[in-house]
Every structure is written in structure tokens, then in C-alpha cells.
Amino acid sequence: MIDVDADGVVAFTQALVRVPSTNDPGRREQPAAELVAALMREWGWEPAVYEVAPGRPNVVAVVEGGGGDGPTLMFEGHTDVVTEGDLSEWTVDPFGGEIRDGRLWGRGSADMKSGLAATLYATRALQLAGPFPGRIKVCALADEEGLMIGAHHFVSEGLATDVDGAIVAEPEAGEICAVAKGALRLRVDLAGKMAHGAMPQHGRNPVQALGPLLVGLRALQEELQARHPAHEHLGEVYVTPTVLRAGSEEQVNVIPAAASVFVDVRTIPGVEHKDIADRVAALASYDGIGAEVSVLVDRPPVDVPVSDPVVAALAAAHRAVTGEEPVYGGVPGSTDGTVLTHWGGIPSVVYGPGGKWIAHQADEYVEVEEIVRCTRVFTEAARRFLTGDV
Ligand SMILES: [Zn+2]
Q: Are 216 and 329 contained in the same domain?
């Protein structure tokens, strides 16, 4: 088994946690991206830095194996983290990077600065072990927690075209996740006609159209669930109205001209997003009320077969390093892997240190031992993928 720099990967995770690269205006990915680029240069790599938006760079380094022809493996991590939120909920400094009781604490410790550090140190370990076929593209991208502009930029720059497989280092508690749920966010705008509440016959009330629409959304969910049985790793399809807007409290005697419903749809493989948007548009047409459906977010489900070389290499590496049978799971939300697979055409698999449910919570932590173990798994997975030993 190839040796990894256990102290180095833990210390670098701490350094990353100590820079507050939250996905908020005013606090961006820049300082975390700079740390990554500096480490890469220290190792003699030549990172390319893409300014995706001001203060929001993607950092990409290609590490050639020098061992002849071979595939290209991508390691992916994101440099942004979600906000620390209410400090009174925390019992540790969210940006302290403190290690206590065998755990490394802080915002991003699990999601996913430890995973990002593991991809870097795994690539370095493989490089130091001698030549290998092909190459590894090590990528630290911006804005995974937002609109994923980093991953979209990566694809639109053409950087995905030569990649044969991607490992996305999100915290999945050691599960190998080759499937991810899809997300579709819709906005439905209902256009009626304003009128005095005393003379509703002169208006068209979009508020009344909300009722049948909400009932229809529930029926649509039931129909989709009946047609697409629950996925073993991803569960059910959900069609959830989350926001309603209409009228104003100060104008109880006015029939408003407009109403809106926002819908959060979560899908599994086999469900077509376009069909759902069309169905919702049909449901919204009611009694002379005009309806327009806008697609706010469209991230299709990911369904990479476990037989794909990148998944097989990871599973074999997990078995070799941990001595345990791999457990397959699914990603409940979407990740940069969704963008890489759907728009970049790269088979992706999500695997990384940290618990699935600890992400985005107060007192986020990762087990120190898990960071090191994951670095070993990544090293072995890369070796197997690039040499075809799966
Ligand atoms: Zn993440």
C-alpha cells in the first residue's frame, strides 16, 4: 500500500478550515483557493487559476504520471462552505480548526475541506511513489453551495472533455455514491385581473387558482411515485410547494392581479424533468387565469453504473484499504458531480470523509482518522483506475 502524509493532510485540512470561505457576499473562496494553489506550487505542480467571478477562482492542476499512455482521472473538491450561522449554536470556533477527541472541528471540516485535502495528498502520494500511466486532474472549484458556477465554468471551458472519470470528495460517511437525486425548482406565475373585493365579478382571482394547483401538485407527486417506485438509494420522487406569494395584508379588499408558487421537485433516475415542468404548466391553467412556469434550477438525477471503472476502482480501493466490503449509497441532493456528469459527460462517483448529516450543521466535525483513511483510499483508487487494476 502506498504511504500517505497523514500529518500533512490533517494539518492542511486545519489550514483550510481556518480561512472562512463561506458562500456569502463579502466572504468568498479566494483565500481557500490561494492555499490550494500555493500547496500545489510547493509540490512543483503548475495550477491554472480561472477567475469564474470576482474573488471566486477555480484552481486546476494536471499531474502527469510520466508512465505512458493512460486515462485521465479527475479529483474534485469545492472551496466554498456554507455560512457558520448563529454562533451561539456552536461550542467550538467554527473557523478554529481545533482537534479534540480525535475530531477536527469547524465549518467545512466535513463538507468538504477534508475531502479536498485528501484529493491533494492522495495525488501527491501517488506521484511520489513513482511513474503512473495517464494523469490526474486535481480540481478545487468554487460555488458548489450556490449555483455551482465553478463546475459549470469548468465544463464550459472545455476542461471536462478529456476526463474519463471523476471522484467527488463530498462527505458520504464512507459510502460509495454513484447515484444522486435530481433537483428541479419551478416558479409558477399566475396572472389574473385586479378588482375590488366588493365586485369580484369584474376581476379574475389568481388566489383561487392556487387551491387546485396545490391539490394538483399533490396528485402529481402521487402519480409519479406510483409510476417510479422508490429507488433503493435515493427513495421517492417529491413534488413540494415551498413558497406562496399573493396579495397584501394591507389590501384585504383587493383581488390581486398576480400570484406565484415555487415548487421544489426531487427526482430519481427515469423521471424526465421536462415532463414535470409541462405537467405543472397544465395544472396551473385554471378558469381564465394565465400561467407561466419558469425553470429556476434544473439538475437531473445522476445514475452511473457501479460497473463503471471509476466506481469499480473506488470500491476495490475501499475494500483493500479498510478491509471492509463497500457500501453503496446515494446522494440526497445534487453536487458538482451532477454538473460534471450531466453537462460534462464524465462518469462521477461521490465519496469522502465525514458524516452525511453533519454537513451544514453547527459543531461540524470530521474524524481525523477518517481523513487519513480516505486519503489512502483515494491514492489506491487513483492507482487502480489509471493502471486498469479494477
Ligand atoms: Zn459539499
A: no
